[in-house]
Amino acid sequence: MSDHPAIMDSNPDGKLILVVDDEFDVLSAYAMLFEFRGFRVRTAANGAAALAMAQRERPDVVLSDYMMPVMNGADLCVAWRADPALHAIPFILTSAGILPRDLRPPYDSFFRKPVSFDTLLAEINRLIARRG
Questions:
Q1: Which of 39, 69, 85, 113 is 20 to 30 Å from 26 by CA-CA measure?
Q2: pLDDT tens per residue, range 30-51
Q3: How many folded domains does the chain comprise?
Q4: Is 89 exposed, middle or buried (0-12, 13-18, 19+ CB in 10 A)?
Q5: What is the pTM of this model?
Q6: 85 occurs within a structural domain
């Protein structure tokens, strides 16, 4: 799914969301819902794949799960902020589990799963608008 153009790619003004999650069903559902709202969507199954993808095509916002193999969402967020080409792109972290108390990755927003799509959509729109 991650290498295929999204349905709404015919909308050149659509903002690009990078969704990172190791659950295929989550990636598929988010892709469908965001595309329906006019966004372009790219997906990655782990943080390392997300970084590689973002180097090829800069998203307007990233929505990442915390618990993933290869590179988890917290490590992705730290690497994201350390990259001069990516550091200003808004980063939303989600998790169904409990984050360690001392974990303080530099994300813009955090949501515990399950989170409503409308809540995510409102936050994505707020972050994109704030960035200008």
A1: 85
A2: 999 999 999 999 999 999 999 9
A3: 1
A4: buried
A5: 0.88
A6: yes
